[in-house]
Amino acid sequence: MRAARAVLYGLWTVAFALGLVGVWQRIAYGHTLAGYGSYVVWGLWVAAYAYFVGLSAGSFLFAALVNVLNVNVLRPLSRTALFTALVSIAVALLAVLFDLGHMNRAFEVFTSPNFSSMMTWMVWLYAAYGILLLALMWYERNGNTGMVRALYTVGIPLAIAFPGGGGALFATLSSKPYWHQPLYPIFFVVGALLSGAALMAALASVFWPDRSDMLHVLGRTVLGLIALDLVLEWAEFSIPLWYGVSPEKEVLMQILTGRFWWVFWVVHLVLGSAVPVALLLWRPHHATCVGIAGALTALTFLAVRLNIVIPGQVTPELRGLENAFSDHRLTFSYVPTTHEWLVLLFLVAVGLGALWLGFRYLPLIETREVETHERYS
C-alpha cells in the first residue's frame, strides 16, 4: 500500500507541475493559446466551472440534509461534505477566473456592481456562500451545534439558488435557442445534487467501507438522481426533435451524431449512467461497487457540462456568418487545446491537494475512524 501511495503522490506532483506550466502560459500569453475565440467564447474552463459549482452545491446539500433533517445514517459524512463543498467552490471560481479577459479586474464586480446582470448576482451569491461555508467550518470546529444548524438552514436555499442561477445564466441568453429553455435552472440543480451525491458515495466507500447502511442510502440516492436526470434529458432531447422543426434541432443532432458523439453516448450514458446503475442494482451494499459507481458518475458529469457549454455556441445563428470574415479566432469549431487541458489539470491538482490536506490535518473524520482506515489501508 505504501508503494501505491508513493505512486499517487508522484502522479499528483507531475500533474501539479504540468498544470503550473499551463497557468504560466495563461499569465504570459493571455487567451492566445486557447481554442475559443470571438464566436465560441466559452470553452473548457467554463464547463469546468459549472461542473465544480455543481459538486460544491451537491456536497453542501448533503451536509445540510444531515444537520437540518437529522439523517443520522449520513452523519459521519457531514464534515467531509462541508469541506468538499468549500474546496469545490474555490476551484470553480479559480476556473472562471482563468476565463476572464482581465483577471485583475475581477474585484470590480463588488466595487461597481451592475445588478441587472445575472453574472453580478451569481458572484454576490458565491461570496455569500463562501462566507457561510467558512462560518460553518468555524462553528463545526468549536462544537456550536445551534449555530451550525441555523447556518445550514440558511444555506439550503442559497445552495439551491446558485446552481439554479447558473442554469438561469444560460437560459436567459435568448440569442442561443439551445440554452434558452426554462428547464435549465432545474437541470442544473438536479445535476448538482447528482454529482455531489456521487462524490459523497465515492468518498464514503473509501473512508467508511464497513458502513453498509450508509453506503446503501448513498447508492439508492445516486440511483434515484441518475433516473431523474435521465428523465429530464429525455424531455430536453425528445420534445425538440419530435417534429424536427425546432431551432435547436441542429445543435441536438450535433451532440447525438456529430464529431464528439462519444462524449454523450460513451462517456455520459455508458460510463456515467449505465455502468453505475448496473453496479448499484447488482451490489447496493458493497463498498467497491458503490465507490466505483459514485466515482464514475461524479467524474463523467463533466461530459454533461461540456455538452451544455460547447454545442450551444458552435452553430451560427446567421447563415454564412462563418464565411463572412476570415481570422483564426472567427471560427465556430472548438476543441480544447493542450494549454486549456494543462490549466484544468492544475485546477484538479489544487482541488485534490486541498482535500488531502483537509483529511490529513482537519478533524473531518473522527480520529478513531482515521486510525481504522489507516490500519486497513
Automatic annotation (TrEMBL):
It comes from the Bacteria. The chain crosses the membrane at residues 7-27, 39-69, 81-98, 118-139, 151-171, 183-209, 221-242, 262-282, 289-310, 341-359. Gene3D superfamilies: Formate dehydrogenase/DMSO reductase domain. Its main location: membrane. Keywords: Cell membrane, Membrane, Transmembrane, Transmembrane helix. The keyword Endoplasmic reticulum does not apply. One of its GO terms (cellular component) is plasma membrane. It holds the Pfam family NrfD. InterPro entries: Electron_transfer_protein (IPR052049), NrfD-like (IPR005614). It is a multi-pass membrane protein. It is found in: Cell membrane. Belongs to the NrfD family. This is Polysulfide reductase.
